[in-house]
Amino acid sequence: MTPFEIDDSFAPSERELLTDVLAGDRRQDDPLVVSARRSPRFARRLQQLLEAQAQLERSHGAVASALAEPAQAFDLDVQRVARRQLGLEPAPSARPKRRWFPLALALAAALALLVGWLATRPSVEREDVRLSAQSVLEVAADFSAVRWDGESGKLWFQVRVFDEAGKELERSELLKTNEWRPARASSYPRRITARLMLVNSYEAGSERAASTVERAR
Amino acid sequence: MGNGTVERLELQRELRPAASPEVAHSDDFDLVQRVLAGERSAREQLAGRLGCVGPILRSRHRALNGRLGEDDLLDVAQEVVARVLAKLPTYQGAARLEVWVYSFCESELLRALARRRRQAQRNAELDQVSEDLAIEDELCSEPDVALWGCVGRLPSADQAIVQARHDADLPFQDIAARLGQSVSFTKTRYYRALVQLRACLDRSRGRRSA
């Protein structure tokens, strides 16, 4: 390829024609341009300048496409680098990155939020899990079983059995059923009081029903 | 700003050429001047604008089929930002800031890729200095690097016309109005800029083939 030279020997009319084509004011199939291109020198000059123009177009197209990229996490890291170099953020410690620290911080924050949420949940949710006011506790005449109403499978219950003096005779495990069979019923005194406790995370052990019964003879 | 950076910017402020009266992107030029004057809010703004480095590097790395990992790409970004800050005093506002930064991204990315390639084909006969020189030679032959280098060597007023035409896609009437010139004068300058550009690109090719 002949090296391009800055050649001022073009006649003003030729330069004007080249300028018009490059500026988009005149098409390449314009009769004047077609005629001028019969000169190899003009044709070569036009070709070379159009190539330079095309290279500019391509490069600016690449810029536009790069700047239209959707944002990614990497860009935040780069932004941090820029801020650091501009003295807007302290340089990172020389120690190796401790990646667990942000994770632990996030977990602690999530836990705090959960605890806060549980502690401040609106009371309407509490009412959902309460026993109704008309809870009934039934003790079998031979003390072999204690039954109650309530949402089986959802609430934790505990039955505690006391004698007349208030001494606790037995207590059940935490139950999600509506019935409990005491293991030591045969040794109970003649008169007992069974208390049904509701156990959950925010009202542990609150009494929901009680029944004092005498063993049937 | 780190002490080293401040000193470097101060030194370069002394050395920078007088601003061209034909500043196409005067807002960007003003921003850079305020950064050089040490204004914190301007540095904040510039940091935001340098956010373009991430997308540019990702996009070009993908287009060039690069094999750099994210950490390596972040190293390139760090180098780009350092070079941009070092060259801030030379920014004349002929191109918008992102386009100016783009040329740094392109050359730093190609440099990193060339380095990686040469490490993979490690030539025991080349010492580090020779290898760096070879990389710089290789870089000069990259058409895009050569183009941005040649655009950067155009007179500031001509750069402004070329950028307005190809980056902002402005018609010559608007470019002329923005720069306070006649339309025919603007077109003539554009033609001359293309002539200079082509000559510069051919010189780069000549160096490459030599």
Description:
The complex is a heterodimer of chains A (217) and B (210). Chain A is of the alpha+beta class. Helix content of chain A is 39%, strand content 17%. In chain A, strands 4-3-6-7 form a four-stranded antiparallel beta sheet, with no helix packed on it. Chain A has a three-stranded antiparallel beta sheet with strand order 1-2-5, with no helix packed on it. In chain A, helix 1 packs parallel to helix 3. The termini of chain A are far apart. Chain B has 210 residues and is mostly helical. Chain B is globular and about 55 Å long. Chain B has eleven helices and no strands. The chains are: A alpha+beta (217), B mainly alpha (210). At the A-B interface, helix 1, helix 3 and helix 4 of A face helix 3, helix 4, helix 5, helix 6 and helix 8 of B.
What's the mean pLDDT score of chain B? 82
User: Which strand order do you get reading across the main beta sheet of chain A?
Assistant: 4-3-6-7
- Tell me about the largest β-sheet of chain B: none
Tally of distinct domains of chain B:
2
